[in-house]
């Protein structure tokens, strides 16, 4: 089966850097993705890692260590609009379906 | 990125009625779409994988006779909640992958449908 663990809540101040960790267990692995979801909205894709290392996209970066079954999302120069839920998600073999973690609610304070 | 639409965005219905939700890929063809359900402040739970031209694949614990999925074309999948009850009230979201992308794992989500069953 597949399971993911990520913190339920993180609070940070505007302008700061925050890291959201994700550990996973999966039978077969295709990639680790990160999605952002604002209240009442649909998830939007942020970042993706299939290989070990860091992927950078603007203020957001994502890291993966396949040997440790671990990844993180790094958000820099936090803005109030970054307050949202962040989900890590893994895709495994067997149809490429994606399983989502429980989500981390990020609160950005002024 | 690719665009996925969903209709309706909100629906309120009486207990016992059926509700159909449409999911469309607007600028790409999707042989596979996914249907999720999300309760407030919870994660997205995969309900089923919709396959164009064949039967959907349901996740364990999801009643296929209650949640009917039809993927009749490469751009449209529908989810029908039959004989809806208040416990079916939830946020239903569809997604699809864009086959044109080399990184084929990214999912594009529709805006979701908020179902309220009275």
Could you walk me through the main structural features you see in this protein, from its secondary elements to its overall organization?
With 110 residues, chain A is mostly beta strands. Chain A is built from no helices and eleven strands. The mean pLDDT of chain A is 92. Chain B has strands at 4-7, 10-13, 19-25, 32-38, 44-51, 57-58, 67-73, 76-81, 90-97, 107-109, 113-117. In chain B, strands 2, 4, 5, 6, 9, 10 and 11 form a seven-stranded mixed beta sheet that branches. Chain B is globular, with a radius of gyration of 14 Å. Chain B is 0% helix and 52% strand. The model of chain B has no long low-confidence stretch (mean pLDDT 92). With 118 residues, chain B is mainly β. Chain B starts with a strand and ends with a strand. The interface between A and B is medium-sized, with 24 and 25 residues.
How do the strands and helices of this protein lay out in sequence?
The complex is a heterodimer of chains A (110) and B (118).
Chain A: E1 3-5, E2 9-13, E3 18-25, E4 31-37, E5 44-49, E6 53-57, E7 60-65, E8 70-75, E9 84-91, E10 98-100, E11 104-109
Parallel strand pairs in A: 2-11
Antiparallel strand pairs in A: 1-3, 3-8, 4-5, 4-9, 6-7, 7-8, 9-10, 9-11
Chain B: E1 4-7, E2 10-13, E3 19-25, E4 32-38, E5 44-51, E6 57-58, E7 67-73, E8 76-81, E9 90-97, E10 107-109, E11 113-117
Parallel strand pairs in B: 2-11
Antiparallel strand pairs in B: 1-3, 3-8, 4-5, 4-9, 5-6, 7-8, 9-10, 9-11
Short overview:
The complex is a heterodimer of chains A (110) and B (118). Chain A has 110 residues and is mostly beta strands.
Question: Hey, roughly how much beta strand do the residues of chain B contain?
Answer: over 45%
- What form of chain A results from the Cα inertia axes? globular
Helix content of chain B: under 10%
Q: Tell me the major beta sheet of chain B.
A: 7 strands, mixed
Q: Which class of secondary structure composition applies to the elements of chain B?
A: mainly beta
Q: Which stretches of chain B are low in confidence, meaning pLDDT under 50 for 5 or more residues running?
A: none
Uncertain ranges of chain A:
none
Number of strands of chain A: 11
End-to-end Cα distance of chain B: 37 Å
Rg over CA atoms of chain A: 13 Å
The overall pLDDT of chain B, averaged over residues, is 92
Described by the principal axes of the CA atoms, the overall outline of chain B is globular
Q: In percent terms, what proportion of residues of chain A is strand?
A: over 45%
The string of secondary-structure elements of chain A, in order, is: EEEEEEEEEEE
As an assembly, this protein is heterodimer
């Amino acid at each position: 089966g597949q399971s993911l663990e990520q913190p339920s809540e993180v609070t940070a101040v505007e302008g700061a850097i925050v890291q959201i960790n994700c550990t996973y267990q999966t039978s077969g692995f295709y990639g680790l993705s990160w999605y952002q979801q604002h209240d009442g909205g649909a998830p939007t894709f942020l970042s993706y890692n299939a290989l070990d290392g860091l992927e950078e996209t603007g203020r957001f970066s994502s890291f993966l260590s396949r040997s440790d079954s671990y990844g993180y999302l790094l958000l820099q120069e936090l803005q109030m609009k970054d307050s949202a839920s962040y989900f890590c998600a893994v895709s495994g073999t067997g149809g490429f379906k994606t399983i989502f973690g429980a989500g981390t609610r990020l609160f950005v304070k002024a | 990125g690719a665009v996925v639409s969903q209709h309706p965005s909100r629906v309120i219905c009486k207990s016992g009625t059926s509700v159909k939700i449409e999911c469309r890929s607007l600028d790409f063809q999707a042989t596979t779409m996914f249907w999720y359900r999300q309760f407030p402040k919870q994660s997205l739970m995969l309900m089923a994988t919709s396959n164009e031209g064949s039967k959907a694949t349901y996740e364990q614990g999801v009643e296929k006779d209650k949640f009917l999925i039809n993927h009749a074309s490469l751009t449209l999948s529908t989810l029908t909640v039959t004989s809806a009850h208040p416990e079916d009230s939830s946020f239903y979201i569809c997604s699809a992958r864009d086959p044109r992308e080399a990184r084929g794992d990214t999912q594009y989500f529709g805006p979701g449908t908020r179902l309220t069953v009275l």
